[in-house]
Automatic annotation (TrEMBL):
Protein name, entry field: Translation initiation factor 2
Sorted UniProt keywords: Membrane, Transmembrane, Transmembrane helix
Keyword Transmembrane: yes
TM region positions: 36-56
Keyword match Transmembrane helix: yes
SUPFAM superfamilies: Methyl-accepting chemotaxis protein (MCP) signaling domain
Amino acid sequence: MSEDPKRLFVQMVGRLGRETQFHLDERQHHFHITNIVLMVVSALLLVVAVFNVYYIHILSNDLNGIVDNMDSMHTNLEVVRVNMNRITDKVESIDKHMGNMDQITAHTEAMGQLMPGVGDSMGKIGSVMVSIDQEMGQMSRSMGNIDQRFRHMTGGVSVMRYNVRQMSRPMGVINPALP
C-alpha cells in the first residue's frame, strides 16, 4: 500500500503547478480589471479638469466684469460727490441770504407800527422766518455730513476696486492659456 515516493513527488509538483497557474491566471484577471478601472478614473479626471479650466475662464471673465462695475461705481460716486458739493454751496448761499431776514423783520416791525393789521401778520412771518433760518443752518450742516460720508464711500469703493484687481490678477495670468 505504500505509494511510490517518486510518483507522490510528481503528483505534488503537478498539483503545485496547477495551483500556481490558477493563481497566475487569477492575478492576470485582477490586473486587467485594475487597468480598466484606472482608465475610467483617468477619463473622469480628464473631464473634471476640462470643466475646471472652463470654470476658471468664466470666473476670470466675471471678476473682470466686477472690476468694470466697480470702476463705473467709483466714477458715478465721484459725480455724486461733486453734485453734493454744489448743493452744499447752494445751501450755504441760501443760509447767508437768510441772515438778512433779521433786517427784513426789523423793517416789518416798523411797518407794523404804521399798519397794525399788517404788523400782526408780519410778526408771524418773522417768527416763521427765524425758524426757517434755523432749519436752513441745520440743513447746511447736514449737507456737510452727507458730503463727508460720500467721500468715505468713494474711498471705500476705491479700496474694494483695488482689492478685486489684486484678486483677479492671477486669473489674468491664467486667462491667456484658456480657450
